[in-house]
Predict the 3D structure of the following.
Amino acid sequence: MRRYLSLYLVGLTALLLGLCIVIPMLIRLPDIQIPPRRYPVPNTYDYYKRLGDAASQLRRSDPKLEALLGYRPSHRRFHNASEYAYLQRAFAPFLKEYRRHLNQPCVVVLEYDLNYPLTELAGFRDMACAERFLMDYELRHGRSSSALERFDSMTRFSQQIRNEGGLIHLLGGIAITSLVMEPLTEHFAALDSAALERLVAICRQYEQARMPLVESVQVERYFGLSVIQQLREGTLPIDQDILGSKPPLSIRVPFIRKLVYPAALKGYDDYMKRVIAETRKPPWQRHAVNPPKSLSARLFVDILSPDFEPIWHKEAMEMARMRLLGCAAAIRLHKLRTGRYPARLEELNLGSMAIDPFTGQPFRYKTDPRKGFLLYSVGQDKRDDSGWRMPDHQTTGGDISVIPYRPSQSATSSGQSAPLGEPAWLR
């Protein structure tokens, strides 16, 4: 009996010793380095942040500006010179100041903190709206040179405010580019050869300087890892406001949390690395990334990571629209100079600017002696719809043209998808 008791005590002792060794190994976090944020000195984003906050405050404090900028930009026009003059005067300090810093180093100021305020982004949107409205007025009154200077400045600004920023900065930059492209697509037919030449140069520069999406995804990876570590250490409150739903026991109970966090952190990091690897590929080669097998890691992926496929699509859409605009300007310029349209896009020597980001092949291009030329991207579904256009703000179905298709409200009032718009032939 004593021998069995001794064996039992030895076994129990060995088990306890084993647990003492294994448990610390289980709860030890993997060695994942989160590099500190580094900024140039001086950092232009510091100036931009103050400008954005001040611009947002100006709009909120001025009822007339609130009325002018509160409409959807694509549905708003200035019908008289007084509105143009008022907006130009109100925003002159902001629009003049941001231009002074366009050639200076700029890195987004950001902390890996869920509560970090990003109040400047609303002001950036107000500045872009002001530029967009001023451009529209100037293009309608034959002042294309001034409008193109605004377009050039604001597209460069949109790149700076996403440099080493998160996805929210990337999406803000894309929204700004979309806003200031609108007047040029609407008045494209009225641009003369000098304006077209300038437009081609701006689109070339934008193509060369475009910030890669993978940088923003890398920032999101570090942001998520930091949040998970803060939750584990208890420096970030674990509540419904943070997680978007009632936290499960595996997060709320400290002991269980200590056990599951290492696997969750590693699983989340492995998932984000796979997303980053896909994001590095050209848009037409990317594939969806499967979620982690670990339930705890999948929980944090659901909480902290967006669906990356729509973001990939937004990036490709911005690339397509800017490239189409530059290509169309080059085609018209070629026609004005030579009296004929190029037989193929390759004649224009545009490089990547002639490539459809949804296929990796040149944009679809056709000419007709009576109609002019037709240029379009096949879009996300990679199906050639012969130039029939996708409704604006829709993600699939139809092709993407230089001239966006905005169906009437009656066409979308039934709740169904709007019909495709006719092909946009240009001259």
